[in-house]
Amino acid sequence: MAPDAVSGSSDAPPGAGDVAGPDGEQVRRTENPVDGPLEWIDNHCHVAGSSDLEGVLADAAAAGVVALVDVACTVEQSEQHPALLAGRPDVWGTVGVHPHEAEPDEPRLGRLAELLDEHPDHLVAVGECGLDYFYEHSPRDVQRRVFAAQVRLAHERDLPLVVHTRDAWDDTFAVLAAEGAPRRTVFHCFTGGPAEAERCLELGALLSISGIVTYASAGDLRAAVALAPLDRLMVETDSPFLKPSQVRDKGRNRPALVPYVGQKVAAVKDVPVAQVAAATTATARAFFGLPGGAP
Ligand SMILES: [Zn+2]
């Protein structure tokens, strides 16, 4: 979803700091809403550049987040990831260009492939990439070209593809049909309803559910979550955007809040939270090829 949050987010305004409160003081350690030692993976967040990355990661670990995937939106972020992630065994990165940042500049996209060659240990997916006709910060034809190039890169490297789509379902499916959907494709921050969910599932893709599932206005999304098999779902925070609505503290969204997303998914599917944690964590490990996952 980044770099823009959707309306209805309860986030602090951009620039308010990450976990830190208004005075730069740390907010209290995040309270885990779920009893028991559950393990979660936040498969989509944007925290590598946080001023207090250590605090963000410690808070996440205390909430049972055993791994997270930090997603790049620009070539620059893709380049910065390996240094930011070095020495952090449970944090993984991606290379990608968000549709907001799409430019008709093929050499810059070529840089993504070089980074994958240089840092295969840290970089586990291509994206986030896709189409955003809601904000339309880049011309649509440029967005489609830059998206298609990244779909091809995911194919070439047999890497997972992280898709962002907003108000652009038909063209998103058209690009994926033309290029072929990579065998590991996820619609991140999925916000469609049952019809879109069915189209994604038919492609063989996964749906990643964010804190939007907790918003009062997200009835269609909850219907999609109810319909999708649990083993086709992952959970994410998309932090620092889209804080789950149950969380009332002053901090911005953060990986430690991913259990709140899982809690809502469990309520919608009427299954135990532990089942959602176990299933989504196993799925994320396998999808991104993280240690402990099926190949
Ligand atoms: Zn994102």
Describe the 3D structure:
By secondary structure, the protein is an alpha/beta fold. It has one domain (40-288): Alpha-Beta Barrel (TIM Barrel). Helices cover 37% and strands 15% of the residues. The protein is built from 9 helices and 8 strands. It has an 8-stranded parallel beta sheet with strand order 1-2-3-4-5-6-7-8. α4 (140-157) packs across α5 (169-179), α6 (194-202) runs parallel beside α7 and α8 (258-269) crosses α9 (273-288). 50% of the residues are buried. Bound molecules: zinc ion.
Summarize the model shown.
With 295 residues, the chain is of the alpha/beta class. It has one domain (40-288): TIM Barrel.
Features:
9 helices; disordered N terminus; binds zinc ion; 8-stranded parallel sheet; alpha/beta; single chain; 295 residues; TIM Barrel
